[in-house]
Inverse folding.
């Protein structure tokens, strides 16, 4: 990291395995001359292969850290989350919102091989649009919730077979009457 921080006007990457610096890199502009933002290429032959653990990647611009990503070394699905694009809907029978379901590691990185079947239940003036149960693909997936023609509170419950149940609350408001 000392070099990545002191490169002046350069963009740099530092890789740490179990908090030990194992690699530093600059954008590979020789191999990727045609790209405006060349990727970083790190030789994994030396330091990275000899150990196992959490990987932390730090990105630097002008010597200042601008991004940090962590990847789990455990290889275990740790968290199941659901999130909607909207917290309220209009009770007109057509208003919808997307609900994203994800399985991640302990750092929030999507687990690409998670393909579990998620059981969904809904209470309140709304319908689920999508399969139920719903199978994740690549650790993620989405369904839609459509409001009915009435107002009230909606509770969506999503159950993962190992990681438990997550709930989401939405509010459906009364629709304005149509003008003639």
């Amino acid at each position: 990291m000392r070099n990545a921080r002191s490169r002046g006007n350069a963009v740099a990457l530092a890789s740490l395995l179990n908090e030990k610096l194992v690699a530093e890199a600059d954008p590979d502009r020789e191999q990727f001359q045609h790209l405006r933002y060349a990727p970083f290429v790190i030789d994994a032959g030396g330091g990275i292969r000899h150990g196992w653990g959490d990987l932390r990647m730090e990105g630097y611009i002008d010597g200042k850290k601008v991004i940090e990503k962590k990847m789990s070394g455990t290889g275990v699905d740790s968290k199941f989350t659901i999130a909607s694009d909207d917290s309220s809907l209009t009770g007109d029978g057509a208003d919808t919102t997307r609900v994203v379901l994800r399985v991640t590691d302990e750092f929030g990185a999507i687990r690409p091989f998670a393909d579990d079947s998620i059981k969904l239940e809904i209470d309140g003036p709304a319908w689920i649009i999508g399969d139920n149960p719903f199978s994740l693909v690549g650790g993620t997936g989405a369904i839609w919730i459509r409001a009915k023609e009435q107002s009230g509170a909606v509770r969506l419950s999503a159950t993962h077979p190992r990681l438990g149940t997550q709930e989401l609350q939405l509010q459906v408001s009364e629709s304005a009457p149509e003008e003639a």
Notes: Residues 2-5 form the longest helix (4 residues). Confidence is low (pLDDT under 50) at residues 4-9. The two ends are 68 Å apart (CA to CA). The helical segments are 2-5.
